[in-house]
Automatic annotation (TrEMBL):
It comes from Mytilus edulis (Blue mussel). Pfam families: HPS3_C. One of its GO terms (cellular component) is cytoplasm. This is HPS3. It comes from the Eukaryota. Residues 90-233 form the BLOC-2 complex member HPS3 C-terminal domain. Signal peptide: none annotated.
């Protein structure tokens, strides 16, 4: 089966069928197939709800404004004319961006293939108006260049750092160091030329340290601290270990 998401053709292997003779299965491998490298949806990461075009989980739950404004029932209730076309600028619901949600889920699949990643990058190169382009790029880079993916998110979406960090650091030791160092560098850049993001980065660094102090052992936590970091700043978290 082949379907298209944002212009990318994705093939899905046929589902596994049981033997018609109902023969006795000798082991788990008889009934479990490892999924192919593409065409399988992964669990979509929570932090994606906070990246454009979405503004939070509430966007996933709210009614589609296109349907509300185009519904005869709604028109009768409000006394307004039926509108047949509503721009995405007016609606960020999951229904209007269904293709984006599907592509994000495909890219969240742990074994997403290199061909899928390349096709996603080609899509971004061909059209700079692709909805959710930053989220697509970050998802691809998380599988090819974790440092760059993290730096993009930290620099462009500082309010999402904690949600992103909790997701990627939970099972990836390398990513823990990458996230912590990236946030620390961003905070250092605020020195001399602070902006509105300075308190956001400071709080994010505190939250990341708190998360790591609760989820790692003392030795690993100390090894994660930036070499040129402020040791006194981390003391409160070290005491919690």
């Amino acid at each position: 089966m082949v379907f298209t998401v944002l212009g990318i053709a994705i093939s899905i292997p046929p589902p596994l069928t049981l033997n018609s003779n109902f023969e006795t299965l000798k082991n788990k491998e008889d009934i479990i197939q490892k999924p192919a490298d593409e065409g399988h949806f992964g669990r979509r990461y929570n932090w994606l709800d906070y990246l454009p075009p979405f503004k939070g989980p509430e966007d996933m739950k709210k009614p589609c404004q296109y349907i509300l404004r185009g519904s005869p029932t709604t028109a009768r209730r409000t006394g307004s004319n039926i509108r047949q076309h509503v721009s995405h600028d007016h609606c960020n619901c999951g229904l209007c961006f269904e293709d984006l949600l599907k592509l994000q889920s495909l890219l969240c699949f742990p074994k997403a293939s290199e061909s899928l990643l390349n096709r996603a990058l080609e899509l971004l190169d061909q059209d700079n108006l692709v909805p959710g382009q930053d989220s697509i790029l970050i998802l691809v880079l998380l599988k090819t260049n974790k440092q760059r993916a993290t730096d993009i998110l930290v620099q462009k979406y500082p309010t999402v750092i904690l949600e992103f960090g909790k997701c990627v650091m939970s099972s990836d030791r390398e990513q823990r160091k990458i996230v912590l160092d990236s946030v620390y560098r961003a905070l250092q850049h605020q020195i001399g030329k602070p902006d509105d993001n300075e308190p956001v980065y400071l709080q994010s660094l505190k939250d990341i340290l708190d998360f790591l102090a609760r989820t790692t052992g003392p030795e690993e936590f100390l090894n994660l601290l930036p070499d040129n970091g402020n040791f006194l700043f981390s003391t409160i978290h070290i005491h919690e270990l």
